[in-house]
Amino acid sequence: MPTPVSPLILVGAGHAHLVMMRLWLLQGWRPPAGTVLLSSGAQAWYSGMMPGLIAGRFDLKDCAIELLPLCQQLGIILETALVTALDSRHQHLTLDNGKQLQYHLLSINSGSQPLLPAQLDGSVSVLPAKPFPAFIRHWQHWRDRAPTRMMVLGGGAAAFELALALKKQFPASELSLACSGELLQSHGPRLRSLALHWLGQAGIRVFQHSRVDRINNKQVFAGDQILQSIDALIVATGASALPWYAQSGLVCDSHGFVDVDRFLRSSHPQVFVAGDAASSRGSVRSGVFSVRHGPVLADNLRAAIMGQDLQAYRPQKNALALLATGDGGAVMSYGKLALGSRLTAPLLGRWKDYLDLTFMKHHRTGG
Ligand SMILES: Cc1cc2nc3c(=O)[nH]c(=O)nc-3n(C[C@H](O)[C@H](O)[C@H](O)COP(=O)(O)OP(=O)(O)OC[C@H]3O[C@@H](n4cnc5c(N)ncnc54)[C@H](O)[C@@H]3O)c2cc1C
Predict the structure, then answer these.
(1) What pLDDT is recorded for position 97?
(2) What mean pLDDT is predicted for residues 64-68?
(3) Topology of domain 5-112+241-306, per CATH?
(4) Whose CA is nearest to atom 37 of ligand 1?
(5) pTM for the full model?
(6) How far is the CA of 257 from the centre of ligand 1 (A)?
(7) What are the structural domain ranges in the chain?
């Protein structure tokens, strides 16, 4: 059977693709017939609300966007399958259901995955924070029987938020956080000290400058040092690339993320890449930056189809970060400014909820 050829294939329902699809709806533009969205499931999970879900502040349905209604309005075919290989030379994708697809134009927004410690002996339950469907399934089992001793691995916003959320949900469990550098090292010192204060107040032990490389007989090792004994490890380490990016023939950086130019175009002009999967100067791997890619991608895919000029993406210098403290509050950083005392955190939390819920509302209705 000949391989079906699609005018446009969208890989992953990441933040940038969601924003792009909503903009196309608002602008009344429809992609060409035969456009396909490949997604691991029928829903897109919104990472900004995951910690709130774990803390028990939101239900599952609050954090998911159903993809079928969005696709139907745009005339896009939704195919629930994962890409396992991309051959950029022959413009060819292989899916985990055995299917092969060919494309004229491709847009990749399939994100990243946390990096697991090099040596795991199976003595503890290991739960990567992504992909979200697997994380949520596992976490639901824990609600009936929580592990007694848990460690969150990672030093970024996700690790900080998940540690506080887990402590809120499982107050009787002993919880710690370990990171290879300083906690929240891409943020200013004021936010870092606020964050350490929140973790300390919640009774969460923090191991900074501790690169966890091994678990042996329930003991967590950073080099030769034993940090502590645990029953479960939650992995929210920084983004690592999906292996098929570097195997695709697209030019990638030394970490396996796809190099893009200022138009979000890869080394192959018929392949655009956005969100965590993309590597460019000045971009940071976060949901905020992926959302910012959305409008540029919406313009550029349309322009590529219609033979028009492309728009350049200009990364913002500072991005607003609102990190959930598990109890409905949040700490905030913007450039060097940081806020999040006991007094201001509840207000910041309300602001974060407002922004997150508005994002969900817009992308559910397309409005
Ligand atoms: C717990 C947690 C909380 C976070 N909170 C925040 C926050 O508050 N603010 C913030 O800015 N960032 C946050 N982040 C980081 C943020 O999740 C990522 O940077 C962001 O999701 C990247 O977006 P993306 O658009 O690249 O891809 P994603 O939003 O990760 O989406 C990728 C999509 O592609 C799908 N996919 C993956 N592989 C394939 C494949 N092979 N084939 C087809 N589809 C595939 C996935 O299932 C997913 O639907 C958080 C991360 C975590 C883990």
Answers:
(1) 94
(2) 94
(3) FAD/NAD(P)-binding domain (3.50.50)
(4) 110
(5) 0.93
(6) 14
(7) 5-112+241-306, 114-238+320-365
